[in-house]
Amino acid sequence: MTQYLIMCRSLSYAQKAARLLERAGITATVVKAPQGLSTGGCGYAVTLRKGLDEAAALLKRNGLLSGKLFGRDGGGAYREVRL
Amino acid sequence: MIYLDNAATTLIKPLPVRQAMDRALLCMASPGRGSHPPAMLAAETVYDCRCAAAELFRVPEPEQVVFTMNATHALNIAIRSLAGPGTRTVISGYEHNSVTRPLAELGAEVREARGRLFDARAVLEDFERLLPGAELAVCTHVSNVFGFVLPIYEIARLCRERGVPLIVDASQSAGVLELDMARLGAAFVAMPGHKALFGPQGTGLLLCGARGKPLMQGGSGSDSIAQHMPDYLPDRLEAGTHNVCGIAGLLAGLQYVRDKGTENILRQERELLTLAIEELTGSGLELFTGAPEAQCGVLSLRSRRLDCESVAEALAAEGICVRSGLHCAPAAHRSAGTLKTGTVRLSFSPFVTADQVRTACGVLRGLA
Lengths: 83, 368
What we know:
The complex is a heterodimer of chains A (83) and B (368). By secondary structure, chain A is an alpha+beta fold.
């Protein structure tokens, strides 16, 4: 996988998640969720290049893991990742 | 010009407020609507402002900070979330129309914990007497007319003990007195951005201890398929594009308050208040004053020979800006016995100097 995507409830939650990850040394960026990955229409997500397990565990401990996780392969397609 | 109408709006702002607004106007678009840099920069600024407010007011999570147009907007959301026809509501005798009018419109059953002016214990005893059986309490932290500091933490304790949700109107205290959302345990705390937080007009905050009922419906940038507002904060209570320029200015204002410290701002304002009282004592003007700890930021007065509007007009002619009349708070004037005449109000900020207060008092002495 070249990139991981953690779906978030909203922009504020994505920002909160990204800042929590950054404080833990995990580089994270807030992005608008790609169409088709968000179940409710518009949504936001946090992207990472690496450290998905650690990031997901940290977000879970802080009550911020509410959405699905996706991985993007070299061809650009997203696939759901289950930890 | 000598500006002494800071309880309405602080006209003189810290320079970074203007700079932040200018930058926002140039560089920022709509937060939560796009993923391009101007939208994301706006989103960062809005979130930074939530975090700054949460830190200053000890709100547990930044998403509990909701942006509004002003304190009236925030109070309307709060009151309409918790009150309806017949809701047994206790309010202080010093509330602004932004509290009493929504309650009247909703048909709530309102009782006033009036208490004597500057007598915190009397207000507290009235709350204690009226709270049993109440379903809601709404209380201002500081009277916008008299600067009377109400015992809000004790009132909050009484409400918690009786399971009555409390809405606090912090319009005059936010940025001046310690305001601790976690310690208050209030359902909502409402405040303007344009007074002692030094943001521009058109900004306000609602600190949410409860979920709240949307006053408006519309785009939130989230859950767009659903035809109801999201059930989570802040999206639930923020429909439509944010006032990003205003929020950028408010963020700079919050940073100013944080850096200066509310205790220093309070001390400075109380020094100016004390100076004004000293300068005007014996002038023949009727001054409304209490014990030093019972009053902050505001001095109301009346002339024995001129009506309040004439006093304000005469001051304005000398370049001195004050507010006169009922200050949109007839309840407070009723409690203090000034409903028929209103008062002239001088209100301070850290940008007011002692020399300005002396000059204004010199003119006022001639209007006694």
